[in-house]
């Protein structure tokens, strides 16, 4: 296998890990005003992701760094052409991170409500815009023969991309509801489990529509198999949630996200950013890649350090594996 193919797969794996882990973070944030009936319940929800949310974001930093080093042409064109959506994602993530740190600094309800809104919108905006961005990556954007983006913002807000944004937001919300049910005790656990089933039904419709549309735009045998697997995993996760098997339900939604992302990358390959204007402008895993020597050095670095990072993050989840409830949250 060529190094360009290996690094295309590694970028896909990094974004898959990011969407699985940050996906339930976004879901918890989006559901904060829905499931959190009082301050103690909202604190329970925040504490379910408190020890891990910042570590989950490392996957995005690593994915962006890998893209920059392995496929600099892809990185440059994507981040310049998608500048405004990516800037909005960055600002939303900053607001959300600040909210997690500052929400508890003062006891006034008004203070906390403002930061709760920052958590909600800081989760909702990236959840939508990541779907919009990846839908446009797969559909293709207007690129010149020099690989320059020549479209505007409205080019990115097409019906297919908007459906992609709605799908990722719904999928992350369902994933988050399952995670809350998995990590909490008492009444909030029951309500989260019931909400996961209701959200999941709407999510399944959106996901099937989006994946079916995706396969009409770009397809391969692998993409078709992966899309079918994603649908089955989501349905299996929802069935497990209905019978209150939260561990299996979370596994189902996580696998559904993984296979859905894999579907997009499988349908995209060997391209990394198709051009809708001129085929000569299409960026591929070959013409967007760094030199073979650079890729070789990066491969050795990844082989050495990736297992260490995975072991550390796995240990973190193991340490904070217990459920929590309002009885663990002191009155203020």
UniProtKB/TrEMBL annotation:
Q: Which domain of life is it from?
A: Bacteria
| Entry's localization field | Cell membrane
Gene Ontology CC terms: cytochrome complex; plasma membrane
| GO MF annotations, alphabetized | electron transfer activity; metal ion binding; oxidoreductase activity, acting on diphenols and related substances as donors, oxygen as acceptor
Q: What is its main location?
A: membrane
Where are the bilayer-spanning segments? 6-36, 82-99, 119-140, 160-182, 194-215, 221-241, 248-269, 297-320
Membrane-topology annotation of the record = Multi-pass membrane protein
Biological processes, Gene Ontology terms: aerobic electron transport chain
Q: Where is the signal peptide?
A: none
Q: Which Pfam families match?
A: Cyt_bd_oxida_II
Alphabetical keyword list: Cell membrane, Electron transport, Heme, Iron, Membrane, Metal-binding, Transmembrane, Transmembrane helix, Transport
Q: Which PANTHER family match?
A: CYTOCHROME BD-I UBIQUINOL OXIDASE SUBUNIT 2, CYTOCHROME BD2 SUBUNIT II
Q: Which family does it belong to?
A: Belongs to the cytochrome ubiquinol oxidase subunit 2 family.
- The identity of this protein, by name, is Cytochrome c oxidase assembly protein
This chain's source organism reads Micromonospora sonchi
List the taxonomic lineage.
Answer: Bacteria, Bacillati, Actinomycetota, Actinomycetes, Micromonosporales
């Amino acid at each position: 296998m060529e190094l360009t193919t290996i690094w295309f797969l590694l970028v896909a794996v990094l974004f898959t890990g990011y969407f699985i882990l940050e996906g339930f973070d976004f879901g918890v944030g989006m559901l904060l005003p829905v499931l959190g009936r009082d301050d103690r319940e909202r604190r329970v929800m925040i504490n379910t992701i408190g020890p891990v949310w910042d570590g989950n974001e490392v996957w995005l930093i690593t994915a962006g760094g890998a893209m920059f080093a392995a496929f600099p042409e892809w990185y440059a064109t994507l981040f310049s052409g998608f500048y405004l959506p990516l800037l909005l994602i960055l600002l939303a993530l900053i607001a959300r991170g600040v909210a997690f740190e500052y929400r508890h600094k003062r006891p006034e309800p008004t203070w906390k409500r403002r930061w709760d809104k920052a958590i909600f919108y800081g989760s909702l905006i990236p959840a939508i815009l990541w779907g919009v961005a990846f839908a446009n990556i797969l559909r293709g954007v207007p690129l010149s023969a020099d690989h320059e983006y020549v479209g505007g913002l409205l080019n990115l807000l097409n019906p297919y991309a908007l459906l992609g944004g709605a799908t990722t937001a719904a999928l992350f919300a369902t994933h988050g509801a399952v995670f809350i049910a998995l990590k909490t005790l008492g009444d909030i656990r029951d309500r989260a489990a019931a909400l996961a089933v209701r959200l999941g039904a709407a999510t399944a419709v959106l996901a099937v529509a989006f994946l079916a549309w995706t396969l009409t735009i770009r397809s391969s045998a692998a993409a078709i198999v992966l899309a079918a697997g994603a649908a089955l995993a989501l349905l299996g996760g929802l069935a497990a949630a209905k019978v209150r098997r939260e561990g299996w339900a979370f596994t189902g939604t996580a696998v559904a996200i993984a296979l859905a992302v894999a579907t997009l990358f499988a349908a995209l390959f060997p391209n990394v950013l198709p051009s809708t204007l001129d085929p000569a402008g299409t960026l591929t895993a070959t013409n967007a890649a760094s030199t073979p020597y650079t890729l070789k050095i990066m491969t050795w670095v990844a082989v050495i350090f990736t297992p260490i990072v995975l072991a550390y993050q796995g240990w973190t989840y193991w340490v904070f594996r217990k459920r929590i409830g309002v009885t663990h949250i002191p009155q203020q």
